[in-house]
Amino acid sequence: MANAGEVRPQQAAGVGEFAAAMRQLKERSGLTYRQLEERAAGQGEVLARSTLADVLGGKATPRPELVAAFVRACGDEQRVHEWLAARERAVSGGTGRNGGEDEGEAGDEPRTAGRRILRRLSRRRVPALLLGLTVLSCVAAAVWAVGPSGGDGAGGPGSSGTRTVLPHGPVEIRPVLADGLCLTDGHAEGYDSLVAVQRPCGDVAPQETELVPAGEDTIRVQWYHPDHGKGCLKAISVRTGAALLEPWDDCAKTSRFRVERSGSGGGAQYVLRVVGGGCVGISGSRNSAGAPAVTQPCDGSGSQTFSITPAH
Predict the structure, then answer these.
(1) Domains of the chain with CATH codes
(2) Which residue ranges does the record annotate as region Disordered (predicted)?
(3) pTM score of the predicted model
């Protein structure tokens, strides 16, 4: 029988209600995203703040290993098996199966199903869901060309009619006004999840960035980290009024960009134009580490200009 005030994930009828139960458990723990991440790390587990924020915010479906690490970090380790069984029912729509992934036997008791998943997790190391993601980068199976685009206005950067040829494989994207800094993951003031910021290029590894072709001469900005997996950047507006770039695990729902040659500064300098409006630029202290990347009206200024070169 549950104790008074105990969170009851087994009552969740779907993924949304399960996420609500996880939010309730976090609130009951009194811990911040950072503290939960640190607690999990102390137990030898990965619990990326950005991934957890996406799960609790309903943007991503929690994988079993994230649920287990989260529940233990919240201090509810005695009921991990119950949370895992509830997660499986929520994801599978209450049928006890979810199309083959982490499935249990029909009619399993929660404790039995949860223990089965725990045994499976103990036999393999599964990377956590995205979302503590990485540098902006550019990839393809071979060198590929991005054509010019009229973008948000005629005569903008990259509208000269020449094709932009980008390097393939992992790259570094460097704001031209900030010597020695690269775009990677970090935190913006007043926002919990990881977003794109500029930090010293030497701090980026082992993260990688790819610009993945998305059709119609556009790309998605995909980050990769061996511990956290992959995610793509999404232009979002937050309560502070900033238009930040946040990594989401569902790349199909994220922003597309056009890489256009800059009107000044040479052949390896580019503008990242957001499909739907605006260009990527650096906010605030443009040459300072930690300054976030934002979307803003395209103006061709140095704060919206980046070099794209192969990563070393």
Answers:
(1) 9-123 (no CATH), 144-310 (2.80.10.50)
(2) 91-111, 290-312
(3) 0.51
